[in-house]
Amino acid sequence: MGKIRLLAIALTVLFMMQTLFAQRYRSDDPEDVVEFLGLGWSWGYERYSKPFIEAGFGLAQADHYKFGGTFYLNGLAEAKFGYSATDSFTTGVIRLKENYFVGSLLQKDLNFIMEEDEPDYTSMDIKRFGFGVRRGFGYNLAILRILPYIQNSFMWSQMSSVRPAGLSQEDIDLLDRFEDSYRFNFVNGTGLKIRLFGSLEADASYEYTVVYPRVIFWQWLGSYTIMYMSMGVISSFARDIVDNSPLLGPLVYFAMTNGLNYAFYSAFKSNMNWPFPSEAAMYNQSLKISLSLVF
Fold it and tell me: What are the pLDDT digits (tens) for 8-19?
């Protein structure tokens, strides 16, 4: 419980720091927050924030570098609710900011393309909850709003497995490390949101999740701070490109921030507290389709 308290305190401090910077660093536009510390959380602080609810489904694949077996492909069901804000950033360009709570269920039984059972496969059920943010710049067309975005979430998961006969002791020990309590998850993702009509939005996304077998607090804090500050620098630079190039800027922002997100995810899979020496994490990759209502 001590580590959980330290982690909760650290997350609170980081988000408070971002809020302070958001209040201090402003451009000529009073609604324009320079995200100096990266992607931060503030619950519905935008003047034009609107509540939204979202439901999604998809497919998710779990894995681990040291796991010798094979996991079943899971189905995924997810619900989000939070606040969404879109505003005009420059000519023809709109900015998306969303903050949300999220809960999801990943199970073999939810897999809508499941083939025959494989006797040597391991089934992994995952229940998880948390909160996160989406940020992006997109295009305000005549009849559509097209918004590519990135997202980051903190989640906690409870995992349980059904293991085949003959699974090696090494694999059994590895699974045991993830199943005795709730585990901290860091979820990155990318997607494309389209405003269809009225308040209805469609969303297609790809998410990649790192599941920590344990939290070594100071190593985790150092690793996350490096990532967080790096994202702040890149997003601030890419945002200036959007300001100067309305046509290409949103795509450049999308490519640069997603590239950095995925680079850190790739490092964390094999070294969960990169660049500090640490063990490998379990990871999930998922594809998802969602519909949301903005009120």
Answer: 555 555 554 444
Cβ atoms 246, 90 nearer than 8 A: yes
Asked if 49 contacts 82 with a C-beta cutoff of 8 angstroms, the reply is no
* Residue reference for tokens 């519905």: 44
The amino acid sitting at 85 is: A
Angle (deg, nearest 10), helices 217-244 and 2-24: 20
How far from the centroid of its chain's Cα atoms is residue 34's Cα? Answer: 21
CA distance 23 to 176: 45
Residue partners of 109: CB distance under 8 A and separation at least 6 = 75
pLDDT in tens, 26-50: 444 434 443 433 344 455 555 678 9
Structural domain that includes position 220: 2-294
CATH number at residue 146: 2.40.160.20
User: Cα(278)–Cα(219) distance, rounded to whole angstroms?
Assistant: 9
Is pTM beyond 0.90? Reply is no
Q: How many domains does the chain have?
A: 1
Pairing of strands 121-140, 93-107: antiparallel
